[in-house]
Amino acid sequence: MISIKGYLAVFVALLALTALTTGVAFIDLGGIGNVAVALTIAVIKAVLVTLYFMHLRYSSRLTMVFAAAGIFWLGIMIALTLSDYLSRDWVSRVEAVVN
Amino acid sequence: MAEVPRAVAHHFDDFAQQHEASTLGMWAFLVTEIMFFGGMFLGYLIYRGSYPGAFAEASNHMDIILGTINTAVLIASSLTVVLSVHAAHEDKQKALLIFLALTVFLGLVFLGIKFTEYAHKFDEQLFPGMNFRYDGENPRHAAIFFSFYFAMTGLHALHMVIGIGIFLVLMVSAWRGRYSKHYFTPVEMSGLYWHFVDVVWIFLFPLFYLLGRHS
Q1: Of B27, B39, B78, the CB nearest to A53
Q2: Spacing of C-alpha B63 from chain mean position
Q3: Spatial distance between the Cα atoms of B136 and B134, rounded to a whole number of angstroms
Q4: For chain A, how far is it from start to end, CA to CA, in angstroms?
Q5: What does the alpha-carbon distance between residue A96 and residue B40 come to, in Å, rounded to a whole number?
Q6: Has residue B110 got a pLDDT over 80?
Q7: Shortest Cα distance, chain B CAs vs residue A38, angstroms
Q8: Rounded Cα–Cα distance for residues B57 and B136 (Å)
Q9: Tens digit of each residue's pLDDT (9 = 90 or more) over B32-51
Q10: Closest Cα of chain B to A98: distance in Å?
């Protein structure tokens, strides 16, 4: 188990990251820069919550496998679906070149 | 009391085994919740990829200050949850009750802020439906954004309502002195649920409130 000090440190880090992500949102980073930063910060926050608040870091290996399986299948769902949506205009582009 | 009740069900060898079974069961449930919310996140991604301009423009109708405050409120509630688990672990009955009550309070603050946001959106006629009015370039695409907004934050708010109900039950049990350093599994498992709901919001916040702010 973590000490109260440890919990407070994670809490302060989460608040700081929240302030950071809101602040950065007002700066134009161009292209996908803003999305990349916002999602990176969100992932870091989620990892902090799961590892320390949900005690995943101190849980059994089997619990970690359960959690990883959830992320893994979510990844499959998103990756395979987007591979369809993001590649739909490839065919028309190829046709435009061929014709 | 002559003996401390260990509260180990007869089909478990000991407390550690029972606790491990509970933890795995809770995580299995949370995995189904990941997939449940994941489907909606995927739908959002597809439509945002299709109409990036309309989504960015529509997102500027979100109240970024209230959104940021609500994120901080939820993070604070996650802190009170871990502190309540910690208090149960240390056998501090009064602290346990206080932190459970604080969690319920912060949950209600979150829902209160969310409610004012919803009310404001209804006033501005941004709720998709017959009365939807939008001055931007692509009202039909903006309506998709607001549909996702209300569906996803609404589902999240429903989870908050359920979470508050669970923590009220925990408060009653804690009041009756059911939890001690020998048995605090319900507090910890309910905490896992609460943190999961917090993580969902951590992703909802940037996707709905922050995406068009810089332009």
Answers
A1: B78
A2: 19
A3: 6
A4: 66
A5: 34
A6: yes
A7: 6
A8: 8
A9: 999 999 999 999 999 999 99
A10: 26
ipTM value for the complex? 0.91
Residue listed under structure tokens 């609500």:
B70
Amino acid identity of residue B6, one-letter, is: R
How far apart CA B80 and CA B95 sit, in angstroms, is 10
Task: Assess contact for B166 and B193: CB atoms under 8 A.
Answer: yes
What is the pTM (predicted TM-score) of this model?
A: 0.92
Token pair of B96 as six digits: 């346990």
* B180, β-bridge pairs: B183
Q: Which residues contact A85 (CB under 8 A, 6 or more apart)?
A: B46, B49, B50
Q: How many residues are there in chain A?
A: 99
Tell me if B213 and A25 make a contact (CB, 8 A cut-off). Answer: yes
Tens of pLDDT along B52-95? 999 999 999 999 999 999 999 999 999 999 999 999 999 999 99
**CA separation for the pair B184, B179 (Å, rounded):** 5
pLDDT at residue B1 in the model = 44
Tokens standing for residue B29: 């449930």
CB contact under 8 A, A82 and B45: yes
The whole-angstrom separation of Cα B198 and Cα B75 is: 7
> Is B16 touching A (CB cutoff 8 A)?
no
Residue in chain A lying closest to B64 (CA): A22
Residues 6+ apart with CB under 8 A from A89: none
Q: Find the CB nearest B199 among A11, A46, A60.
A: A46
Pairwise CB contact (< 8 Å): B78 & A26: no
Fold of B33-209: Four Helix Bundle (Hemerythrin (Met), subunit A) (1.20.120)
